[in-house]
Amino acid sequence: MTFVTITFFIFLLAAFFCYFVTKKPYRWMVLLGFSVLFYLFAGYEKLLFVLIAALIAYLVGKYATKRNLIFGIIGVVGLLFYAKAGEAIYLALSLKGSVIVPLGISYYSFSVIGYMLDVYYKKTKPEENFFHFLLYMIYFPQILEGPIPRYKSLMPKLLKGEDFSYERVCFGLQRMVWGYFKKLVIADRIAIYTGEIFGNYKSYSGIYYFTAILLSSLQLYADFSGCMDIALGVSECFGITLDENFKRPFFSKTAAEFWRRWHITLGTFFKDYVYMHIAISPKLLKLSKTAKEKISKEFGKSLITVIPLSVVWILTGLWHGTGADYILWGCYWGVIIIISSVFGKKLKALPKVLSIDTSSKAYQRAQMIRTFFIFSGARLLTAPGDLGVSWYLLKRMFLPWHLSEYFSGGALVNDMTLVDVAILFISIMILYVVSSLQEKGIKIREKIASYSILLRWVFYYGLIFATLVFGIYGPGFKSSDFVYIQF
Amino acid sequence: MSNNKGINNKIHSSRMGKFRKVLSFFVIFSILFLLLQNLLTPVWNYPNSEDNLSYSYEGFFQSPSNTYDVIFLGTSHMLYGISPMEIYKEYNVCTYNLGTSGQPIDATYYTLEEVFTNQSPKVVVLDASSLFTDEEHELDSLWRFVMDSLPFGWAKLKYANRYATFFANQGEEFDLNEYTLRFASAFFPMIEYHDRFDELNENDIFDVPGVEEYYLAGYFLQTFHESSGVTVDEMNAYEKENESLANIYSHNAKVLEQIQKLCKEHECELLLTKIPAIHRGKWYTGAWTYARYEAVKSLADSLHISYYDLLYDGDISIDVEKDYTDGGAHLNYLGAKKTSLFLGEYLKDTYQLEEKTYKGFEENEEGYDALTTVAFLQLIFDEKEYDEYLTHHKQFVKEETKNGFVVKDKLCDVLVDEVEQNKDGSLSHVNALFYLEDYWLAYAKEKTS
After folding, report:
1. A5, B194: Cβ pair inside 8 Å?
2. Rounded CA gap, B150 and B107, in Å?
3. Which residues contact B236 (CB under 8 A, 6 or more apart)?
4. Contacting residues of B for A464, CB less than 8 Å apart
5. Which residue ranges make up each domain of chain A?
6. Which residues of chain A make contact with B177, given a CB cutoff of 8 A?
């Protein structure tokens, strides 16, 4: 069951009703019950996997020794590795049977690893109640695509049982509708184009590839952030605030800034539990000192950044996928982030040398466009689904371009029409305007709430009906599952 | 104390205010939703086309109770093959044609269930092609065509369940989401048709003048012409090796049994028949071979269902050169008239059907005659015969053109035929069906003005 199914709406209505008719101290049970039910839609055998991971983490939390911590992390990572690499291993060893891939394993694995580490380092007290802990792990709005929660901040909210709040529910529903708009109108409409180009790439070249890669970047953003809006909106209706996972990443001026705005909870996980631990580890500090003495001060200093970043980006790549494409993707980002980190000062001095006004809007826009192209370059590695195809596309991306063919109707692939293009353009513009306003600190929902009832309802009805009419969904249409579900 | 009461009153009125707001929001939302849904859902209301379904079904279900003694059901073979008005004019027997393109036999069953809520036909006639529709390849549109036109009721509910279950089982496992989406779309067609916004035309917004004047009682009056190219014997010889053509799908046979049971419950006879289809099966699997006839006969005998095949049991004298619209699969007006009169006589005699007068059909007769006068004209291929026809129908005026001539109806001031003269002296009619549609609209407009 995903968020774009009628079954989910029925499920959500039932969950909502049961939650608010239940007395506050027991509301967490309702959430747990519905989360288990949500999970069971994926298959009871997958729930068993979750229970094993939950038991491991719960027991490690209760008996938090270094040995237990190591075994616990190995256990959880082992299950994660089995889910991600199992198919390839089965194939290589000609084993029979199929790999069970539990729903949201990449997300809940990190949330429990974080919990085990926080308990071990005494940043939080261990959870005494196994069922509380299970709820933290499989709370249904976040199980599909995150955000990756922190036990300390989420658990109290799950147990508190907020009063019903009309304003909060309204805001939550508005956010959900916005998420559906991004997913169904923008992401799934772009998917019609990119699916055709990547699926039948040998029939195209030049500008077709180029636009497909750029559009796939927008598609991924609209898809993933749309899902986050739905997840956070659902949770907001229950009075439970989840962590933001996106902060308008395409307004980033640097790659490093991009990763502070994109999939934020994954980034902060790696920063808090991997980067920091490596950066301040005695072994690395010793190595850095040795390097300073034997090679150069600068080199030794850079090791404090380079080594942890390298590990983080390899792991980030592996988290997304164990294939060569994601490993290369991790290296791609790693190299870019490392270069910008190590040579940051020198790179910042370059515009001054060229007499470019770095405070000008034009320069900042150019930085944003550059960052977008860097992101799109990474998409080239993974969007086609195979490195061989990525290489094929790259070789033929710039010549010949087929410009005249493209703009005289060739771009309308897969039964797309000019109307589809117009809708896409307008909806992307709407997304841009909303994001720009948010970037300026304007809280859109609060702003609209301050308008007269007539104007407010025009906005709400406009968004709802735009999604209902222009959304890509319907019987027989297998809307592309949310992309980040595959992780 | 009064302070608490004041606060409570404020809270209460605030809650009531919010409740009213929410209620108003949903009421307005519902109205807007229904308006938009109405706009986007196809009206299936196009003059004399296979897509004139909703008017055909609407016309039927709005008819007075117990009007029709015979109901015709089945695929496009039935839709093109039987004209109730021909039967009424000749025998004064009231019938209605509820055939649709590629009608899934499940649709037939549930349509019949709905029929019995308002009508008490003595005979239900089913074209046997329904037994050979391939369940695996049934298109969504063929199901929806009927479902969207059925009035709301238990039959539609059960049909929606069947429709949703069928498509939810298309994959390896039952797809619950597909089921709920399809079931919901039966009652909220917006789910299916929301993307029609770039297909909207005047028919979706305004009533097309003339559509309300419906004279055909479900029959699709077809005036395109294409010869079959084969005789019955040639067809059977060609299909001799194609044994799979005679496989009746087990599901379809089961539903046939259910149809039989339903008819029995309503004291109605079920007659299986076959509108003649004589062609090579290579391009269309409807070729009615003797092997198929035998397979149906065997099944009908085992189920004690009457079966009267209009190709192998009766002799309608179908002319393979003149009577087909598309090379032998479907009949044009000439073929349909013969079939209707033949089957009408058979039904009247076999089932002792009473003659009766139906006001609706009496009112339709003039319009029907006007249409069929043009239809007949469009199916004349001999110049001498054509000129003779024009002599007897003074409302038509001939005007010479470069390649042949056009014919205009003086009363309605509309072209009704465009003819090209072939080298061998025979005539070819250009875009006959489109001229027939134009005539229909013009005639209805003239009649109402």
Report:
1. no
2. 10
3. B289, B290, B291
4. 29
5. 6-160, 167-242+396-486, 255-385
6. 1-2, 5-7
Counting runs of H as helices and runs of E as strands, what totals does chain A give? Answer: 24, 0
Contact A469 B192 (CB under 8 A): no
Assign B134 a pLDDT band (cuts: 50, 70, 90): confident
Using alpha carbons only, give the angle A397, A403, A406 rounded to the nearest 5 degrees: 95
Q: How confident is the model at residue B215 (pLDDT cuts 50, 70, 90)?
A: confident
State whether residue B194 sits within 8 Å of chain A by CB: yes
Residue A420: exposure state from Cβ atoms within 10 A (0-12, 13-18, ≥19): buried
C-alpha span between A154 and A241 (Å, rounded): 8
- Residue B90: per-residue pLDDT: 96
| DSSP β-ladder status, B404-409 and B396-400 | antiparallel
The parts of chain A modelled with pLDDT lower than 70 are 476-487
List residues bridging with B307 in a β-sheet.
B272
Query: B43-356 has which fold?
Result: Rossmann fold (3.40.50)
User: Could A474 and B185 be called an inter-chain contact, meaning their C-beta atoms sit closer than 8 Å?
Assistant: yes
Cα gap B211→B202, rounded to integer Å: 13
Spatial separation of the C-alpha atoms in residues B404 and B425, rounded to whole Å = 11
Q: Which of A2, A166, A419 sits opposite B198 (nearest CB)?
A: A419
Mean pLDDT along residues B297-306: 96
Contact of B167 with chain A, judged by CB distance below 8 Å, is answered with yes
3-state secondary structure of B420: strand
Residue whose token pair is 């004139």: B52
pLDDT band for position B379 (50/70/90)? very high
SS3 B72: strand
Q: Taking the model in full, what pTM does it have? A: 0.87
Q: Which residue of A has its CA nearest to B199?
A: A419
Interface contact A469-B29, CB threshold 8 A: no
Q: Give the CA count within 13 Å in the CB-facing half-sphere of A170.
A: 16
What is the CB neighbour count within 10 angstroms for residue A361?
8
Domain boundaries, chain B: 1-40, 43-356, 382-448
Per-position DSSP letters for A337-369, written without gaps between them: HHHHHHTHHHHHHHHHHTT--TTSHHHHHHHHH
Identify the H or E element spanning B399.
strand B396-400
What is the Cα–Cα distance from A103 to A106, expressed in whole angstroms? Answer: 8
Q: 3-state DSSP call for residue B398?
A: strand
Least confident of A78-87, B367-376, B386-395: A78-87
Q: Say whether B177 and A1 touch across the interface (CB within 8 A).
A: yes
- Cis ω before A400 (30° cut-off from 0): yes
| CA dist., res. B66 & res. B56, Å (int) | 17
Residue B210 has pLDDT above 80, yes or no: no
Report CA-CA distances (Å) from A80 to A73, A423, A465.
10, 40, 40
Spell out the residues 6+ positions from residue B222 whose beta carbon is closer than 8 angstroms to its own. Answer: B80, B325, B330, B331, B332, B333, B336, B433
Alpha-carbon distance of B252 to A379, in angstroms, equals 50
CA of B108 to nearest chain A CA: how many angstroms apart?
22
Quote the minimal CA–CA distance from A474 to chain B in Å.
6
Degrees, nearest 5: CA angle B339-B345-B347: 95
* Whole-angstrom distance, CA of residue B125 vs CA of residue B132: 16
Identify the pLDDT of residue A478.
59
